[in-house]
UniProtKB/TrEMBL annotation:
Source lineage: Eukaryota, Fungi, Dikarya, Ascomycota, Pezizomycotina
Xref: Pfam families: Sulfatase (PF00884)
Name of the protein in its database record: Arylsulfatase
Modified residues (3-oxoalanine (Cys)): 85
SUPFAM superfamilies tied to this protein: Alkaline phosphatase-like
CDD domains, sorted: G6S
Length: 601
């Protein structure tokens, strides 16, 4: 009887979970508790490539500040779950974790557009679902890596009313872009500035969308501020090395080249530190020379300059929406596929790491009912964007989503402070690439499972590497991730920031391991409610609950730990250690603990 009641309670929770649309008496109820009006809103999604949130790039974009940050809500704790272009984008467009898409790289055999197609997603992803919901859908710019001038029609991308894609191998050549419109052949734009070409295409699609007089979704995906890249043929395959790719600083439009001449990378404590930090190959990086630092500062300035043309797109899109008198029924989202580091932890320009610079990324939303000039600290990720877009489209959410719709009204944002999940699943497979002119190298032992856990009094990043190394950072006291607590004695106490609790690391670490054990193979609700998997009774809802001493034996003795048997270049389950998860049993604690049963029920 108890089991039946628990199953019923969990099913009800799944139906009425905060942040999702539900149906009541056959009427769709929005996440703010209201019924939709008859007119579905328009959605514009502006997506940059490799834009940082931690090096202050948004402060150098005045139109983003004026139109989006001042007029909308900025989500300060928004994360990508995999810090690499193509896997992150597939995660975003499908609402599925990378281990469920199995698109984990930028090229075959583990990633890229061919992998996206082979996994069946060309017929099951956001633009298709939006069309089913009555939307016209438009896209221009970079979609996926390994989407090329030779395979663009094998097959054509499905789901768009109108499309004009940037194609490899010229995706990142700012003055030599190739675009491919609808089912036409690719066209070279050699000598033209790629972001300006993108802008014209975006404005044309916006005009088309308005003329069609249907609700529309328009995605504008710039390659800025990504490095300028030239690929060798060997890049597209399984034998790539650092010699397969030539990276240089991003290129700005001629009108922006004079800007920011005195600007430098923020000199945070983790910028080119005197003492090495991190684990694995990162811990072996040398301190950068002054010549290296000077080059990286100019690299940073070039990124800011390249973003100015994107900033102009934001202004022109807003201007057009106002001109067409549809701004008040249009949601605008601004984000990036992943973050970026330059000099932090002695790293050369690049991404692919689990540090905040790489995974904490911009997300700004403005539109009907969205609070203006607000900053939210609820935890969100790219896995939540597809559910969010469908929620706004007044479409029924898919039960196999690994994320949950992001609350966008004052009331739901306020409620989410107490009800929304506290974690982000972080994962990565394969290489890390050092870009720029110094220390250019491809590191292959860069496979890890990570966890961002943010709650009342705690703020952790924990990762387990395929090499067997571990990292644990307390970002409340160590926001720049310089002190690896895992390397200290596990018998030492850790005191939570609110001073309400103190536990030994030997008790904390097994709880974090168990969360990763769930999240590394989770699907659907398991990904948003991992504590339910470990404690089906529902008595544990956050880390504080899990740290109750009554669960010590369960976590510290009974539960398996996250590990790898081999470092792989992609998602190969048999190399990723144990995946069997033990569920905590109330009957077990009642049998062994007597009166403690009544305390829990």
């Amino acid at each position: 009887m108890l089991s039946l009641l628990l199953v019923s309670a969990l099913c009800l929770a799944a139906i009425t979970d905060a942040g999702s649309n539900v149906y009541k008496d056959d009427q769709l109820i929005l996440q703010d508790g209201t019924q939709p009006n008859s007119k579905q809103p328009n959605i514009v999604f502006i997506l940059t490539d490799d834009q940082d949130a931690r090096m202050d790039s948004l402060s150098y974009m005045p139109y983003v500040q004026k139109h989006l940050i001042d007029k909308g809500t900025q989500f300060r704790r928004h994360y990508c779950t995999v810090a690499l272009c193509c896997p992150s984008r597939v995660n975003l467009w499908t609402g599925k974790a990378a281990h469920n898409t199995n698109v984990t790289d930028v090229n075959p055999p583990y990633g890229g557009y061919p992998k996206f197609v082979s996994q069946g997603f060309n017929d099951a992803w956001l633009p298709v679902w939006l069309q089913d919901a009555g939307y016209n859908t438009y896209y221009t710019g970079k979609l996926f890596n390994a989407h090329t001038i030779t395979n663009y029609d094998s097959p054509f991308v499905a789901g768009f009313t109108g499309s004009d894609f940037l194609l490899d191998p010229h995706t990142y050549e700012y003055l030599n872009a190739s675009f491919q419109r609808n089912h036409e052949k690719p066209v070279s734009h050699e000598g033209e500035y790629a972001t300006d070409v993108l802008a014209k295409k975006a404005y044309g699609f916006l005009d088309d969308a308005v003329a069609a007089d249907k609700p529309f979704f328009l995605a504008i995906a710039s390659s800025a501020p990504h490095s300028n890249v030239k690929f060798a043929d060997s890049w597209f395959g399984n034998n790539l090395t650092e010699h397969s790719i030539e990276t240089s600083p991003p290129v700005s439009a001629e009108r922006h080249k004079h800007l920011f001449n005195d600007t430098v990378i923020p000199r945070t404590p983790n910028f080119n530190p005197d003492k090495a930090s991190g684990v694995s190959w990162i811990s072996q990086l040398p301190k950068q020379t002054q010549e290296n630092v000077d080059f990286n500062d100019e690299f940073y300035r070039d990124r800011l300059r390249a973003l100015q043309a994107v900033d102009e797109i934001v202004h022109e899109v807003i201007t057009k929406l106002e001109k067409y008198n549809i701004l008040d029924n249009t949601y605008i989202f601004y984000s990036s596929d992943n973050g970026y580091h330059i000099g932090q932890h002695r790293l050369q320009p690049g991404k692919e790491c689990g540090y905040e610079e790489d995974i904490n990324i911009p997300l700004i939303v403005c539109g009907p009912g969205v609070p203006q000039g607000e900053v939210s600290d609820i935890v969100t990720s790219h896995t939540d964007l597809a559910p969010t877009f469908l929620s706004l489209a007044r479409a029924e959410l898919r039960p196999d989503f690994d994320g949950a719709a992001i609350p966008l009204t004052a009331s739901t944002l306020d409620a989410a402070k107490d009800t929304r999940h506290e974690h982000v699943n972080v994962e990565y497979w394969g290489f890390a690439l050092a870009e720029g002119n110094f220390g250019t190298k491809m590191y292959w032992n860069n496979t890890y499972k990570g966890l961002r856990l943010i709650g009342n009094g705690y703020n952790f990043y924990y990762s387990v590497w395929c090499s067997g190394e571990h990292e644990l950072y307390d970002l409340t006291n160590d926001p720049y991730e310089l002190t690896n607590l895992y390397a200290t004695s596990h018998s030492l106490p850790y005191t939570f920031a609110d001073q309400q609790k103190s536990v030994k690391l030997s008790s904390l670490l097994p709880r974090l391991d168990s969360l990763i054990l769930v999240l590394k193979t989770c699907s659907s609700r398991e990904c948003t409610h991992p504590w339910e998997v470990l404690h089906p009774s529902g008595h544990v809802k956050d880390l504080h609950d899990a740290l109750d001493s009554r669960y010590d034996d369960f976590y510290e003795v009974q539960q398996e730990r996250v590990s790898f048997s081999k470092c792989e270049k992609g998602y190969i389950l048999e190399s990723e250690g144990p995946s069997d998860i033990k569920r905590f049993s109330l009957e077990d604690i009642g049998t062994r603990g007597g009166s403690r049963w009544s305390e829990l029920v």
